[in-house]
Specification:
Elements lengths: L6 H11 L5 E5 L12 E2 L9 E2 L3 E4 L8 E8 L13 E5 L11 E4 L3 E4 L2 E4 L11 E2 L10 E3 L7 H9 L4 E5 L4 E6 L3 E2 L10 E2 L2 H10 L6 E6 L3 H12 L4 E5 L10 H7 L3 E5 L3 E2 L5 E4 L5 E5 L3 H19 L8 E5 L3 E2 L5 E10 L5 E5 L16 E5 L5 E2 L4 E6 L1
Helix pairs in contact: 1-6, 3-6, 4-5
């Protein structure tokens, strides 16, 4: 029988053996949601000029500031810089325009009134030097690091790329993932149920977890509890996908053919069985061409917990993603655990009046009980060493 390894050992072994999926260049409009594989630096100072922040007038703030100014020109956004004629003059400006040469102050239009060809300041209004001026280079200077490799390109990152003239970008290749549900009892979602049958759900849940994290190249498959059929199915999928995720057939039963099938296909086992509950039978290995193979238990809670705890972080890390550490929460109730196993317990999280994250445990009755999971946000990880973890205990929290 395979020796149980710890959660930390499983995590480290996966990280040590995971392949890199490479990179590719894509056009900017196709880069949303992708992972940067190289840093992005500022094309120029931002803003590239002293920028007007309010509609109004630009003037020179001298010691004896006059109350009335002759209009000497207009500075619109996108225009080359105009020049102030003298300290008794002003220039009309719009938000986003260059600060006219010779000006060092913007007076908002609501603090002025127009009198013919002159602007008069509002009574008792005293403008300050450099007010409403967005100084050149105050956001960033030329060549400053703006985005690190490993950053996921969302809306703010897209704005930075576009503003700095990046027309195409080097991103991580999204691996092709095959999800294989195993079991004689499984039928498709829309099928009529026969006696002893259940509808496939693990594959859809795993696919949803992948797609919500940016993995859109996902294919679903099914195989019966038959060694020959399992070998044939996995052989075909190994030839067309970089990652295989299996659900079921990985325990020690007489109909659990996945480990034997993978061995027959030359998939090298890295580990099998982790000292945890649920998900103890999890298997991980590397295929002949470097394919990553994750064989998860068939019970729904076990499969989803293993996917969130191990598979998703491993795939994201292999794409160069800068991963965040797990959240830290405080249990608001006691939980029965196991002195010898790490326990993953579904929980609902809310914040108290001080902003502290409180996790309310919602233990599954069995590892097949997935009906209560929609009432939870994820699961807490509770280390071995005691049979009951008391309320107030701090724990790491992983979101679905």
């Amino acid at each position: 029988m395979n020796e149980l390894i710890s959660v930390a050992e499983a995590e480290a072994l996966i990280a040590r053996h995971m392949p890199s999926f490479g990179s590719e260049r894509v056009g900017l409009d196709d880069a949303a949601g992708r992972i940067l594989r190289g840093p992005i630096h500022a094309e120029r100072d931002q803003p590239p000029f002293d920028r007007v922040m309010m509609d109004g007038i630009a003037l020179r703030r001298s010691g004896s500031l006059p109350r009335s100014f002759k209009l000497s020109g207009v500075q619109l956004a996108g225009m080359a810089a105009q020049t102030l004629l003298d300290e008794d003059s002003c220039i009309e400006v719009t938000t986003g325009a260059m600060l006219p040469d010779g000006c060092d102050c913007i007076v908002p239009v609501e603090q002025t009134r127009r009198d013919g060809d002159r602007y008069v300041l509002a009574e008792d209004y005293q403008p300050a030097h450099r007010q409403f001026i967005h100084a050149r280079g105050s956001d960033c200077v030329i060549d400053a690091l703006l985005l690190d490799a490993g950053t996921c390109i969302g809306a703010p990152e897209m704005a930075v790329l576009a503003a700095n003239g990046v027309t195409d970008v080097e991103v991580a290749i999204v691996p092709s993932v095959a999800i294989i549900a195993t079991g004689d009892e499984l039928v498709d979602v829309g099928a009529v149920l026969g006696e002893g049958q259940i509808r496939r759900s693990n594959d859809r849940a795993l696919a949803a977890a992948l797609r919500t994290r940016g993995f859109h190249r996902v294919a679903l498959s099914q195989v019966a509890d038959d060694l020959g059929a399992t070998i044939a199915t996995l052989d075909a999928l190994l030839a067309t996908h970089e990652v295989l995720i299996l659900s079921g057939g990985v325990s020690m039963g007489q109909r659990d053919h996945v480990p034997a099938a993978l061995h027959a296909l030359g998939v090298r086992r890295v580990f099998h069985r982790i000292a945890q509950r649920p998900g103890k039978p999890m298997w991980f290995g590397i295929g002949p061409q470097g394919q990553a193979v994750f064989a998860l238990p068939g019970n729904p809670v076990s499969a989803l917990v293993c996917a969130i705890r191990y598979v998703m972080p491993a795939l994201l890390a292999s794409m160069g993603t800068v991963t965040e550490p797990p959240e830290h929460v405080c249990l608001d109730g006691a939980v029965d655990t196991n002195a010898n196993l790490t326990c993953f317990v579904p929980a609902h999280v809310q914040h108290d009046s001080s902003g502290r994250a409180l996790a309310h445990p919602v233990p599954s009755r069995t590892s097949g009980d997935f009906s209560s999971l929609p009432r939870t946000h994820g699961f807490v990880q509770l280390p071995p060493g005691q049979n009951i973890v008391v309320a107030g205990t701090a724990a790491a929290f992983y979101r679905w």
